[in-house]
From TrEMBL:
It holds the Pfam family HTH_1. It comes from Paenibacillus farraposensis. Belongs to the LysR transcriptional regulatory family. PANTHER family: HTH-TYPE TRANSCRIPTIONAL REGULATOR YBHD, NITROGEN ASSIMILATION TRANSCRIPTIONAL ACTIVATOR-RELATED. InterPro entries: HTH-type_LysR_regulators, LysR_HTH_N, LysR_subst-bd, WH-like_DNA-bd_sf, WH_DNA-bd_sf. This is CidABC operon transcriptional activator CidR. Keywords: DNA-binding, Transcription, Transcription regulation. Residues 1-58 form the HTH lysR-type domain.
């Protein structure tokens, strides 16, 4: 057994698929399958139940997973520290981004970072903010972007966007000409929401319940552009962040301020407090903080 065997095992456990794990690790599926079989033979236990194309951890696999995470984490910290000692300005960063955040805020940041550090590679994982937070907490990601606040106190955070949610309705909707809309006025409306793995899904439902009603959800999606198109097709109403609303077609939609309550949308980067960060990850955090502070401070002052 070597560290690669454990890394392959953890990737299969994370993705629940040999094929996806092989693609993620840039190796062939037979290689990863052979490695897992070898690991099972060496340990004398079955690690995965194969169910069609999907796999699930056995009880023994779950025990090995916890130990393997600790071993791989220690190995990665050791490797990172040695690289820093040798002043090798190279590295690899695993960053989690919710889909709407990645397209709206980070293309320029990634481009500028690559110019400054051409030998640092970035691997992006697109998932809902809840999944991103879980993966940063588990060590599967180095850094994540989530809708704050984070759950628990294991993370360092950097807040870079403070906005709120707006209401989207069809131009023929009864509320379309309103100056602002209280949340309670949406009690009978069909909602188009983000999926359950998105923080906004839970947050919107929680605010509706506090306002005295359970929202009637007719569609769920992981894509903000599909959600807005559903509203434009008069299939329901939606609540989307201001940053997204600025890019929408105001002729096909009405974008209205939501009040009573205002639902905040605060974005931040997170990373584990207790985990060693490589040179590349530290530089990414520092670089991004400076760039986003400058960029969004300027944007907000222009809008005011």
């Amino acid at each position: 057994m070597d560290i690669r065997h454990l890394q392959y095992f953890l990737e299969v456990a994370r993705l629940r698929s040999f094929t996806k794990a092989a693609q993620s690790m840039f190796i062939t599926q037979p290689t990863i399958s052979k490695t897992i079989r070898s690991l099972e033979e060496e340990l004398g236990v079955i690690l995965f139940n194969r169910i069609g194309k999907k796999v699930e951890l056995t009880d023994a696999g779950k025990v090995i997973e916890l130990q393997a995470q600790a071993i791989v984490k220690s190995f990665q910290s050791l490797s990172s520290e040695l690289s820093d000692l040798m002043n090798l300005k190279k590295g690899h960063i695993r960053i989690g981004l919710p889909p709407m955040v990645g397209s709206s805020f980070f293309p320029r940041v990634i481009g500028e970072f690559h110019k400054a550090f051409p030998d640092v590679t970035i691997q992006l994982f697109e998932d809902g903010a809840k999944k991103v937070e879980q993966d940063v907490g588990a060590g599967a990601l180095d850094i994540g972007v989530i809708v704050l606040p984070a759950v628990g106190d294991m993370f360092e955070t950097f807040l870079f966007v403070e906005e709120k949610l707006n209401l989207l309705v069809h131009p023929t909707h009864a509320l379309a000409e309103s100056e602002e809309v209280p949340l309670s006025a949406l009690a009978e409306e069909p909602f188009v929401l983000f999926r359950e793995d998105f923080t906004l899904h839970d947050r919107i439902i929680a605010e509706c319940v506090r306002a005295g009603f359970q929202p009637h959800v007719v569609y769920e999606s992981s894509q903000w552009d599909l959600i807005s198109e559903m509203v434009a097709a008069n299939l329901g109403i939606a609540l989307l962040p201001e940053a997204i609303c600025r890019d929408l077609d105001s002729e096909r939609l009405r974008i209205l301020p939501l009040v009573d309550p205002v639902i905040p949308w605060h974005l931040g980067m997170i990373w584990r407090k207790d985990r060693y960060l490589s040179f590349a990850a530290r530089e990414w955090i520092s670089f991004t903080q400076e760039l986003l502070r400058t960029e969004y401070a300027g944007k907000y002052s222009r809008e005011k």
